[in-house]
Amino acid sequence: MDRKEWLLGLYRSMVLLREFEDRVKVLFLEGTMPGTIHQYQGQEACGVGVCAALGPDDVITSTHRPHGHALAKGLTADEVMAELFGKVTGCCKGKGGSMHVGDLAKGMVPAVAIVGGGLPIAAGMALAFKMRGEKRIAAAFMGDGATNEGIFHEALNMSAIWDLPVLWVVENNLYGASTHVSKVMKVPHIADRAAAYGMPGTTVDGNDVLAVYEAAHKAGERARSGKGPTLLELVTYRITGHSRRDPALYQPDEEKKQAQANEPIGRFAKKLLADKVCDQKRLDALREDVKAEVELSVQRAIAAPEPKPEDALEDMFV
Amino acid sequence: MSGKRLGIAEALREGIAEEMRRDPRVFCIGEDIAIPGGWGGAFTVTYGLEKEFADRMVNTPIAEAGLMGAALGAAMMGMRPIADVQYSDFLFCAMDQVANQVAKMRYMSGGKLTVPMVMRAPVGVTGRGSQHAQMMEPFFLPLPGIKILVPATAYDAKGLLKAAVRDGNPVLIFEHKLLYGSKGPRSESGTVDASSDIPEGDYTVPIGKGIVRREGSDVTIIATLLMMHRAMEAAALLEKDGISAEVIDPRSLVPFDWDLVKTSVTKTNRVVIVEESPKRGGLGAEIAATLAEEMLDCLVAPVKRVAAPVTPAPFSPPMEKFYIPDAARIAKAAKELMEIS
User: Fold this and answer.
1) Rounded distance, CA B124 to CA B109, Å?
2) Domain of A266: which CATH number?
3) Domain ranges of chain B
4) A106 to chain B, minimum CA–CA distance in Å?
5) Which of A59, B60, B83, B285 gives a 20 to 30 Å CA spacing to A269?
6) What CA–CA distance (Å, rounded) separates A88 from B140?
7) Residue B132 annotated among the catalytic residues of the structure
8) Mutation test of the interface with chain A: which of B31, B90, B96, B166, choosing the one with the most A Cβ atoms within 10 A?
9) Is there a domain that residue A312 lies in?
10) Which of A116, A115, A118, A91 is nearest to A104 (CA)?
11) pLDDT at position B2
12) Structural domain of residue A129, as residue ranges?
């Protein structure tokens, strides 16, 4: 693929994540969609940039905020949307829901909605790759909040002592639910914590998709060559509430304003135009294309059959 | 039969080694499991296995949640981990991984993935005070998604371990410290002989099938692990008083062999359930409730539970002796049922 198409692919992917979430928000607020939601608006460059550095055989773990990771890893809007609606056509046949979307066939285990819970699982997947001499890697997405969990320490330490092929991807959106990271962490950068495990740690502009890609690619090559894990801190911002109807009153207005100006899709669009990769018309066409894809996924999800109630009894053991 | 006499620790070790030879995906992961000069886990089960399987014995940091999560990740990637904690009490440290992740991952995936992993955990009130003493079955019994095995003999330990490795689901094996027959510096005082004649060659014990340890006609005594051996002693005492006790060892708690229990109760009409764990909310409660729901008309007397009191396990030997059900208490409960009807 030539570089221009690759760049536009990143753009389209980020727009897909955004349009998907914006549509889901409306569906949820109007009461069409069941359950609860934790959304990804503003953090698209993280998921898209990291997954662009992964191959189809590589695997990810995700969090309670997983829609973006799923779409970035290659799950279709159809199967994720249907899962959010609890339909049998969903990626987990309606047994997962918003917080557990995933499909191992696409390299994503069902998202782990216990903060930090996915980290040792990623280490174990990487351990399997290493034991079998495979060149695959695992990437564990987490928020800033996960780095204060005890399991963060256990998982990162294990990955370091065994030189496991893992990318520890912290999306630092500055807030664990409503609590600002400065209230719960004494070191200035989460990446500083990597030193405690003897692994490299880098702080990256998480709203710059190319910077994220470059960092993830470098860490990925390091992991594939047997040199071990890397801690990537991607500094970003959540331009939506923590969950459901959260108006995010804890985010200062000035900060929100700056975040809107710094949000990753607009920034990348400006760069694509400035670098003359394409014109605005092409970008608009891509967005329209994505909107149609998302709308189709909504229509299909609504039309899809509900599971039979007694399907709840299936899928326990092999 | 050209077999040999092995204790549980040795039988498990042989079973693990055979499974690792049979299937290159099988590996062990745990704390202190294969350090030359070490003990092979807290109770010698994996002693020396690093000599044959240097690359498949993963010694972890002291990180129970981490190692259980790592086993889960490896299992989903097609490996067959056998993960162990040194004492079952430490499962609480790993509880998010075991209860939220291991137990639910296949279900949440809509059955698209499998979690073929074995967990091993030593239980038993054994002179160590409250935190290295718990019987963990009551905490896991209500948790959907994990099979639970409780081998009381070396034959069953090996056969169930091998069946667990091949099962393809999360299987948790509780092993009793006083039944291991661990040797050398890791031997236990107060140990009970649970050794068996182990046949040559491959065999498994089916998961979900209990066994009648002693046939009888007056009262059914249901007991697992160490309590099964105490129940056998109690049955011998009862025989002297002319009471014929049938001793049932369920061997699997999940799935549970209800057919075996019901067949026995249909014959004896009286039931004693023995538990080393506190009485509240345990296996006895589950069995008693099910019998009340489904076969109350078969019972001629109330179901009796002989269990530990609802306190942590005490340290001091006299208190510990008081805490753990013994043969005399079990026999007394059975006699009381005979007096009622």
Assistant:
1) 35
2) 3.40.50.970
3) 4-198, 211-340
4) 12
5) A59
6) 30
7) yes
8) B96
9) no
10) A91
11) 57
12) 3-304
Interface check B211 vs A, CB under 8 A = no
The answer to whether the peptide bond before residue A34 is cis (omega within 30 degrees of 0) is: no
Q: Is residue A316 part of a domain?
A: no
Residue B111, token pair as written in the block: 């059955």
Question: Which residue type is seen at A2?
Answer: D
pLDDT tens-digit profile of B275-318? Answer: 999 999 999 999 999 999 999 999 999 999 999 999 999 999 99
| A234 neighbors A191 (Cβ within 8 angstroms) | no
B58 vs A: CB within 8 A: yes
Say yes or no for a CB contact (<8 Å) between A95 and B109. Answer: yes
Compute the average pLDDT of residues B123-136: 94
pLDDT in tens, A1-33: 799 999 999 999 999 999 999 999 999 999 999
Q: What are residue B211's DSSP bridge partners?
A: B249
Six token digits for residue B225? 């692990």
Has domain B211-340 been given CATH number 3.40.50.920? yes
Residue A131 lies in a domain: yes
The answer to the question of residue A314 being in a domain is: no
For residue B1, is pLDDT > 80? no
CB contact under 8 A, B108 and A110: yes
Distance CA A79, CA B81 (A): 31
Distances (CA, A) of B4 to A281, A283, B122, B197: 81, 76, 24, 5
Statement: residue B103 has pLDDT above 90: yes
User: Cis link prior to B142 (omega < 30° from 0)?
Assistant: no
Provide the token pair at A139.
């990437």
Q: What tokens does B130 get?
A: 């409250």
Fold of B4-198: Rossmann fold (3.40.50)
Of A224, A78, A64, nearest in space to A149 by CA: A64
Using a CB-CB distance cutoff of 8 angstroms, which residues of chain A are in contact with residue B106?
A: 315-318
- d(Cα B116, Cα B105) in Å, to the nearest integer? 11
pTM here is 0.97
Tens-digit pLDDT profile for residues A222-278:
999 999 999 999 999 999 999 988 999 999 999 999 999 999 999 999 999 999 999
Fold match flag (B4-198 vs B211-340): yes
Residue B70: which of A102, A127, A316 has the nearest Cβ? A127
Contacts of A100 in chain B (CB under 8 A): 108
For A154, name the nearest residue in chain B, comparing CA atoms only: B66
Q: Between chains, do A94 and B110 touch, taking CB under 8 Å as contact?
A: yes
φ/ψ of A170, rounded to 5, equals -95, 115
Number of domains in chain A: 1
Q: What is the pLDDT of residues B154-190, one digit of tens each?
A: 999 999 999 999 999 999 999 999 999 988 877 888 8
Which of chain B's residues have a Cβ under 8 Å away from the Cβ of A125? 73-74, 76-77
Q: Distance between CA atoms of B307 and B274, rounded to whole angstroms?
A: 6
